[in-house]
Write a sequence for this structure.
């Protein structure tokens, strides 16, 4: 009788320990989620050149107003609509550079940008902008087909083509998307980068992210929420 009682007690203790372990693990997951959803800083830094040295400028100050901004541009999206910097007035946007015939990293970048689209698909303040680096090949029709193939939402995510010089100037001299510092390049040097950039409502660069890295994309999503709520 005592032996049977001891066996039953041992089973109860084992079940209790398993339940406690599962409960603690669930709580840990909740804490991990909170960490992911919490920004690293009160507000995001500003960037002004290819070194991506962070400038901790307080938003809505004179220093911010005179800081580097993305200038006006004139491009065309997959719908044949003209896209300028005014398209992004009062918008936060994520931008990158790609080409539709890219067999490698561009597909992974598109897949990760789709995650950002899904996260903010019902938020009109958040939009996406992808520039073709082979604009002579990526016509409006080609971009439209690419958009339909990959589930890209029109007017939420703009795939743009246009003048090659303008696109390359934007990429290299305004967004600073390439990592090879100090290497002189011209229009004949192919522009290819996996970087995503976060741009605020005032056209300032507020973050750079590896478009191939899941953790970096998760941080991008967190930073978008921070930028929207805190500036």
């Amino acid at each position: 009788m005592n032996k049977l009682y001891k066996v039953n007690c041992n089973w109860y203790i084992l079940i209790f320990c398993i339940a406690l372990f599962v409960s603690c693990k669930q709580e840990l997951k909740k804490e991990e989620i909170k960490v992911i959803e919490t920004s690293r800083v009160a507000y995001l830094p500003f960037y002004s050149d290819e070194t991506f040295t962070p400038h901790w400028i307080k938003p809505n100050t004179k220093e911010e107003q005179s800081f580097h901004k993305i200038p006006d541009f004139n491009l065309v999206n997959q719908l044949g609509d003209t896209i300028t910097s005014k398209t992004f007035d009062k918008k936060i946007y994520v931008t990158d550079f790609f080409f539709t015939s890219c067999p490698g990293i561009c597909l992974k970048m598109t897949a990760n940008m789709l995650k950002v689209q899904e996260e903010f698909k019902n938020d009109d303040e958040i939009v996406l902008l992808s520039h073709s680096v082979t604009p002579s090949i990526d016509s409006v029709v080609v971009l439209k087909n690419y958009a339909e193939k990959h589930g890209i939402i029109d007017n939420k995510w703009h795939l743009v083509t246009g003048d090659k010089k303008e696109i390359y100037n934007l990429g290299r001299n305004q967004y600073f998307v390439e990592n090879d510092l100090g290497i002189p390049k011209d229009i004949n040097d192919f522009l290819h980068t996996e970087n995503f950039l976060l741009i605020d409502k005032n056209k300032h660069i507020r973050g750079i992210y590896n478009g191939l890295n899941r953790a970096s994309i998760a941080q991008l999503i967190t930073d978008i929420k921070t930028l929207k709520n805190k500036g």
User: Anything to note?
Assistant: The beta strands are 74-76, 82-84, 92-98, 126-132, 157-160, 195-199, 205-210.
